[in-house]
Amino acid sequence: MGAAINSASGTNATVLFNGYCKVTGWTFHNGATGGARVVKLYDMSRKPIVGTDVPLVKISVPFAATSNQGANFSSASFNNGVPFYNGLAYAITTGIANSDAGAVAADDITGVLDWTVRTD
Question: pTM score, two decimals?
Answer without folding.
Answer: 0.93
